[in-house]
Design a protein that fits this description.
With about 240 residues, the protein is mainly α. It is about 70% helix and about 0% strand. It has helices at about 15-20, 20-35, 40-55, 60-95, 100-110, 115-130, 135-145, 150-160, 170-180, 185-200, 205-210.
Length: about 240
């Protein structure tokens, strides 16, 4: 059985990591510097990844081919299938003129660029995140902002930042793990866990009290469901 060696180059993890990152560098150079098509850049990066795995990490040829097939299948079905549907919906809206109606409607709400960014990047982007995910919210929301006159570079940056808001799965998962292991947490970590749990449970006054602030008497709010669990009570 082949054992993965994480330090194949002179026993150095840093140098080995730099060599392992070569396929990513090749992809970025092909796309950003040489301006090659996406399919050509992807094939070149794949070839460089195979070369690194076979020559540097001494991966058996059959395992390298199997890993390539598995990666391609994972990219086609769970990722590309969803993204294809979202892009198809986007193109349908553009070709029928509905996308311009959506864009003009949002632009007509306010001329303030900050509010336009909030409406499109955060709100509309959150809708696209729920419908498709992956890179679709940034691509579609960024196109809308660019159509409204935003600099394309800043539009992409705003949408990337906004896309962190509708993706709280990792936060909830990590919070559940933290609550389960609170006995092993330090005093500062324990306080952060208590504040986060109080916020999820809707106990705003308690959350403010933990932070050393006074509550506003807003009372209890319904707790937020975390998967199959609720976080209730004291930790």
């Amino acid at each position: 059985m082949w054992q993965h060696n994480y330090e194949p180059i002179a026993g150095s993890l840093g140098v080995s990591a730099i060599v392992a990152a070569l396929p990513i560098v090749v992809l970025f150079v092909m796309l950003g510097v040489l301006r090659k098509p996406a399919w050509m850049s992807a094939v070149t990066a794949l070839a460089s990844a195979l070369l690194v795995s076979l020559v540097v990490y001494r991966m058996p040829f059959n395992l390298a081919i199997i890993s390539t097939i598995y990666g391609a299948a994972f990219g086609i079905f769970p990722i590309a299938w969803i993204v294809f549907a979202s892009i198809m919906l986007y193109r349908l809206a553009v070709d029928t003129g509905k996308f311009e109606i959506i864009k003009d409607t949002i632009a007509g709400l306010t001329s303030d660029r900050r509010l336009q960014a909030m409406f499109i990047a955060f709100s509309f982007g959150a809708f696209i995140e729920g419908a498709a995910g992956f890179g679709a919210p940034v691509a579609i929301s960024g196109a809308m902002l660019a159509g409204l006159g935003f600099n394309p570079f800043y539009a992409a940056g705003i949408c990337l930042l906004a896309n962190t808001a509708p993706s709280p799965e990792e936060f909830f998962e990590n919070l559940e793990k933290a609550v389960a292991n609170i006995d092993h947490a330090s005093e500062g970590e324990r306080l952060l866990i208590q504040v986060a749990q109080a916020g999820v449970d809707g106990r705003g006054d308690e959350q403010l009290a933990l932070l050393g602030l006074e509550g506003d008497g807003g009372g209890e709010q319904p707790p937020v469901e975390l998967g199959q669990h609720h976080l209730h009570g004291e930790v």
